[in-house]
Amino acid sequence: MSLFQQWAFIVKEALDKSFLVAKFFCALHVTNTYLCSPALVQGPSMLPTFNLTNELVLLERISIRNGKAGPGDVVVLRSPENPRKCVTKRIIGKEGDNITYIVDPKNSDKTETLTVPKGHVWVQGDNIYNSYDSRHFGPVPYGLLQGKVFWRIWPAGAFGSIGRRPETVDPALKLFRSYSSRTSRDNAGSLQKRNVLLVIAHPDDESMFFSPTINQLTSRGHNVHILCMSIGNADGIGNVRKEELYSASATLKVPIQQVTIMDHPDFQDGFGKIWNTSLLSNILEKKIHDDAIDIIITFDNYGVSGHCNHRDVHLGVQRFMLDTSQRDIEAWELVSTNIIRKYSGPVDIWFSLWSAQNSLNGQMHCLLNENPRRSYAAMSRHLSQWVWFRKLFVSFSSYTYVNTLRKINT
Ligand SMILES: [Zn+2]
């Protein structure tokens, strides 16, 4: 190769790399401006939602662009009095709403009422005693809203979603059919504890795919039962894997007496093994009767990884739902996502929330993992499976951070 050719080669290589870097920054810019970006929140006005000290949160910008931000949402906006400054407040009313507010809560109970003008929102801090907000600067033009706060990244102990006000509907509860009829009578605190059955194919499915759901349900005191259809004996270490599942369940706060692991010739772990769905349906019928199960959660018809055993479990549950005479039972499936979303880690939370929000009549719900470290710990209990690529999977898989459940209609 001549000197000139060598140089040409190096220059071409350098240019290619620079294009790659430029592309990366373009993508970052587009993400920041149009989709999602981090922000720091501080000060007393949003106590108790946010602490006085710096908290790192994620903002999503799509709701604002689509005009979907509304009462209850925590938003970051440009201060109407100093556009170089951004403040964090909660939307109390949108255009056309009548707002009644306490003018000066520290000194009197005097209230005032007004109608929010077109194209404006009314914002207040959660700590009305120490917040400079619409009560002082009036309704805010919608255009000043920068993003909706939806996820707290730091402090790590408080990692998790920032929903609407605490009394609004808990996503885990939305799964239960009788939720709406009960809430009219009870407050959220006295809701009945329910029996949930998670049906999986192999030991480790629970920690790898379903841990956001399990964490949400157990933290609210619901009884989670696990029915694992095989001991995962593809490599001949079924008995070891069985023990690992008990151990992982304990980490996930599921009592081991509520974990049933089948070892049946018709349900053996492996690609190409076809499982008997009508037998599975019969087993479910008995299990549901014995444990007074209210709700079943399982794989969808793709089964996250496309594994045939996962898909057969889905078919078995679907069959049960068609066959059963128990009309008051509901089944939900874990929505399989495409490969990009699957490996986008916590970023997928945004896509999941967005798709669940846009789903028709509450047939899809998004459960965020409130304790990803617990999920990681649970997966590490599956020692025989705990190899480097699974460690990577658990860290980067969106299923460690969020589960979207869709109702199985039969
Ligand atoms: Zn599996």
TrEMBL record:
EC number: 3.5.1.89
Pfam families: Peptidase_S26, PIG-L
GO terms classed as biological process: signal peptide processing
Active site: S45, K89
Gene source species: Deinandra increscens subsp. villosa
Gene Ontology CC, one term: mitochondrial inner membrane
Location within or outside the cell: Mitochondrion inner membrane
Role of this protein: Catalyzes the removal of transit peptides required for the targeting of proteins from the mitochondrial matrix, across the inner membrane, into the inter-membrane space.
Family classification: Belongs to the PIGL family.
Swiss-Prot/TrEMBL keywords: Hydrolase, Membrane, Mitochondrion, Mitochondrion inner membrane
Subunit structure, as described in the record: Heterodimer of 2 subunits, IMP1A/B and IMP12.
Protein name: N-acetylglucosaminylphosphatidylinositol deacetylase
SUPFAM superfamilies, A to Z: LexA/Signal peptidase, LmbE-like
Gene3D superfamilies for the chain: LmbE-like (3.40.50.10320), Umud Fragment, subunit A (2.10.109.10)
Family annotation (InterPro entries): GlcNAc_PI_deacetylase-related (IPR003737), LexA/Signal_pep-like_sf (IPR036286), LmbE-like_dom_sf (IPR024078), Pept_S26A_signal_pept_1 (IPR000223), Peptidase_S26 (IPR019533)
Spans through the membrane: none
GO molecular function, one term: N-acetylglucosaminylphosphatidylinositol deacetylase activity
Span of domain Peptidase S26: 25-101, 112-154
